[in-house]
Q: What sequence folds into this?
């Protein structure tokens, strides 16, 4: 990424960037709730959302609007925020701890591994029902972790950019093939439809109940990532350099990779495979505020949330009244951007 | 006060013994040079000091703390090290890298205090990097990167400073700059242990030398005691002679060992 000259007003700059992103998140959120087949004016969106906590607001809007906002669009927008932030955060942490600018939960095979686990669970009949909101994220976490371990074993401890990408590709392919195998041999028509739709990366199935686990994981991960930010900075000194600064780099990296699987896995469980968000958003964040871990990760999370809300809005609108899975859109946009980055970073491979 | 004390240290990497039976001490206020041909085990020996590698036998103490039973975090408040690993591939500023040196002194959620900022500023000043503190480290030359690494080590406020080939990649002026900085730090009471490839620097700037060959200590003592023609030929495969500039300055050696005129000079004449 290009060099951003930063000077002693670095603190003012990070506050400015975060404030701007928070404002953008609110605006994007209101916009996304307001737009769709039934258009609800943004001024009304505010009031409908505020009504439960602001007692003097008169409910003078149509009941249909209230249902659309509370049951359909708001959970979807909040899911987009949580998933976008989780993917960007996990991508940012992956890039920091592997010292690899191309690391990302999708390219590392985490998403495919999680997808396989979720498919298996669905076909076995454990995905639905009251426990689904817990068992699906748990399975996705374990599947993602398994895939990540496979890639790291393949790529070796040194984990050059090339072996990491190829390893992720191979593991992703195998997991994808196994997923197809499971679907073709065991799934019913309804399960197939569910899995295929989910795998493409869509937020259409968002419900409040599905959000509890990923939401809690995101909050926890943000706190831990910001607390451990200094240690992530220290990792840039290399394993020996980190040891001399008091850090066991291998143990820290292992724990961080578990965290990445947890974040990305739980996101995949609710939203399927959404590519390139985890890869590209941290680069944009470090372009804005540099690579100091706490700045970069906090900005990544906010930027990821804004981005996915807007991307999902676009996915709903481009082929209206039908809609695209947002994963299709991020892949169409992100793929070429990734190729451009590869071109610029050829020397790293 | 002893900065570093090693006794009977042996390190195996895989089935191979890389370092055997090493005894070594570095006193506070002393600059000790670790020299030896490539692959003689210098870096491995240094790695035992910050627990990057665990000796299979022997004891390693840093400022009285046994390394094997002291946490890395605690050790990093006493010992700082620069390594030969390449870094500086991400968008951090020089100051952000030097601030990493304060990490061992801070709890996870502690903010940087005024005291920490002052220490970071002093470390930047001591290495001549203060005017570059807001520069992106990816734009630094090899020499500047080396100085940033030393500044970060100084920000740890260590009693023991360990440097692996600190003069690598440096132009002549900065080689001398670094070595003179190390002399100043030692004069202030720090124990300094460094590896050097350039025996001329070792002869001029170190109080004592430890010569490693194939993982074993083959000589210990002042440069004048250690670097004789036989050792230069047998261990390093070079022809050379160490001379002390003149008799008058030799008499001062006891009192002001670092008076430039008293520094021994190594003349090298080629391979054996």
A:
């Amino acid at each position: 990424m290009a060099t951003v000259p930063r000077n002693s007003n670095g603190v003012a700059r990070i506050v400015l960037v975060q404030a701007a992103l928070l404002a953008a998140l609110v605006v994007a959120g209101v916009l996304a709730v307001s737009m769709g087949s039934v258009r609800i004016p943004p001024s009304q969106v505010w009031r409908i959302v505020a009504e439960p906590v602001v007692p003097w607001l008169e409910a003078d809007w149509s009941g249909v609007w209230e249902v659309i906002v509370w049951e359909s669009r708001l959970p979807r927008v909040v899911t987009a925020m949580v998933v976008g932030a989780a993917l960007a955060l996990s991508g940012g942490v992956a890039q920091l701890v592997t010292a690899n600018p191309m690391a990302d939960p999708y390219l590392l095979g985490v998403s495919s591994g999680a997808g396989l686990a979720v498919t298996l669970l669905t076909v076995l009949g454990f995905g639905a029902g009251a426990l689904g909101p817990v068992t699906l994220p748990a399975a996705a976490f374990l599947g993602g972790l398994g895939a990540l371990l496979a890639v790291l074993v393949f790529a070796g401890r040194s984990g050059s950019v090339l072996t990491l990408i190829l390893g992720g590709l191979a593991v992703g392919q195998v997991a994808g093939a196994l997923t197809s195998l499971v679907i073709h041999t065991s799934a019913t028509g309804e399960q197939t439809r569910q899995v295929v739709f989910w795998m493409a990366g869509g937020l259409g199935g968002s419900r409040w109940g599905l959000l509890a686990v990923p939401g809690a994981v995101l909050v926890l991960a943000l706190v831990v990532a910001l607390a451990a930010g200094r240690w992530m900075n220290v990792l840039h000194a290399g394993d020996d350099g980190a040891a001399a600064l008091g850090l066991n780099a291998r143990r820290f990296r292992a724990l961080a990779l578990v965290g990445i699987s947890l974040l990305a896995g739980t996101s995949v469980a609710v939203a399927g495979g959404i590519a390139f968000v985890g890869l590209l958003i941290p680069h944009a964040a470090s372009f804005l505020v540099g690579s100091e871990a706490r700045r970069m990760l906090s900005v990544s999370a906010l930027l990821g949330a804004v981005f996915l809300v807007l991307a999902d809005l676009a996915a709903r609108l481009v082929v209206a009244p039908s809609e695209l899975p947002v994963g299709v859109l991020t892949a169409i946009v992100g793929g070429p951007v990734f190729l451009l980055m590869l071109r610029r970073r050829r020397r790293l491979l | 006060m002893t900065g570093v004390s090693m006794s009977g240290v042996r390190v195996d990497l895989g089935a191979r013994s890389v370092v055997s039976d090493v005894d070594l001490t570095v006193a506070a206020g002393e600059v000790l040079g670790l020299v030896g041909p490539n692959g003689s085990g210098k870096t491995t020996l240094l790695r035992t000091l910050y627990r990057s590698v665990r000796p299979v036998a022997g004891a390693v103490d840093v400022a009285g703390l046994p390394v094997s039973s002291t946490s890395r975090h605690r050790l990093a408040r006493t010992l700082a090290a620069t390594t030969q690993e390449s870094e500086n591939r991400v968008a951090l500023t020089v100051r952000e890298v030097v601030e990493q040196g304060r990490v061992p002194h801070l709890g996870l959620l502690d903010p940087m205090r005024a005291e920490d900022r002052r220490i970071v500023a002093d470390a930047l000043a001591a290495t001549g990097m203060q005017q570059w503190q807001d520069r992106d480290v990816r734009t630094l030359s090899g020499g500047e990167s080396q100085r940033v690494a030393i500044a970060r080590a100084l920000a740890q406020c260590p009693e023991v400073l360990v440097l692996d080939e600190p003069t690598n990649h440096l132009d002549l002026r900065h080689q001398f700059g670094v070595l003179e900085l190390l002399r100043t730090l030692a004069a202030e009471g720090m124990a300094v242990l460094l590896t050097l490839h350039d025996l001329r620097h070792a002869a001029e700037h170190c109080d004592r030398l430890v010569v490693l060959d194939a993982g074993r200590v083959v000589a210990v003592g002042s440069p004048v005691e250690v670097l004789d023609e036989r050792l230069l030929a047998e261990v390093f495969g070079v022809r050379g002679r160490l001379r002390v500039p003149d008799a008058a300055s030799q008499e001062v050696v006891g009192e002001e060992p670092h008076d430039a005129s008293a520094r021994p000079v190594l003349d090298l004449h080629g391979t054996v």
User: Anything to note?
Assistant: The CA atoms of residues 92 and 282 of chain A lie 5 Å apart. Chain A touches chain B at residues 1, 3-8, 10, 99, 227-228, 230-231, 233-234, 236-241, 243-248, 286, 290-292 (CB under 8 Å). Residues 10-348 of chain A form a domain with the ABC transporter involved in vitamin B12 uptake, BtuC fold (CATH 1.10.3470.10). Confidence is low (pLDDT under 50) at residues 1-8 of chain A.
